[in-house]
Amino acid sequence: MKIILKKDVQGLGYKDEILTVKDGYGRNYLLPQRLAVLATDKAVKALNEELKQRAHKLAKIKADAEEEAKKFEGIHLTIEAKVSDGQAIYGSVGPTQIAEALGKAGIELDPKKVLTKGVKALGQYTAQIQLHREVHVEVPFEVVPDADSKQALAEIAAQKKADKAKEAAKAAETAEDAVVAAEAEAEAEVLEAMDAPAEAAE
Is the dihedral of CA 190, 195, 198, 200 positive or negative? Predict the structure, then answer.
């Protein structure tokens, strides 16, 4: 019996394949379960026409994806994030944030098409955009501190600078005290040496 599979059948074949099977297997299992239909001339002709239309449709979908890919040329995203006093950010930058940034750049995109894992630190990265099974693009993006974080980081940096200046001043003061003490000690030794001959003469 010649049949056309309507669904994938494990161990037998895949949907739309034309196969020859034993009459009993086809009549008692495949046909009643609607896993296949008889491969009549009419059915084969209809299948070929459907495959032809499907191939044309798939080719158009791929061509549309390739055309869409051109929109990403020259795109470089800057994404602001709230950060701690180090390079780590609160939460992460993932597909949703990248899709939003693309939206601001004039490119509407489903976040599901962004394959990048969540980014948890400031820096330069690259997002993988899957527009089609055979069409994908890479979009560079940079994660930078947002305005509030910039101010906080600037204050922290200023405080650290002030602390270092205080430490340097304290160190200089300590060094100066040591010099003064050494000079005083040396002067005392000189005076003591001068007094020694006088005492010996008496």
Answer: negative
Cβ–Cβ < 8 Å for 96, 112: no
pLDDT, one tens digit per residue, over 71-87 is 999 999 999 988 876 66
Report how far residue 24's alpha carbon sits from residue 193's, in angstroms, rounded to the nearest whole number: 126
Q: Which CATH superfamily is domain 2-70 in?
A: Ribosomal protein L9, N-terminal domain (3.40.5.10)
How many whole angstroms from its chain centre is CA 162?
A: 36
CA 200, CA 202: separation in Å to the nearest integer? 5
Are 139 and 102 in contact by the 8 Å Cβ rule? The answer is yes
Instruction: Compute the distance between CA of residue 120 and CA of residue 94 in angstroms, rounded to an integer.
Output: 9
Specify the fold of 71-149.
Ribosomal Protein L9; domain 2 (3.10.430)
Instruction: Measure the CA–CA gap between 167 and 31, rounded to whole angstroms.
Output: 88
- Chain segment 141-178, per-residue pLDDT in tens: 999 988 776 555 555 566 667 668 677 767 767 766 66
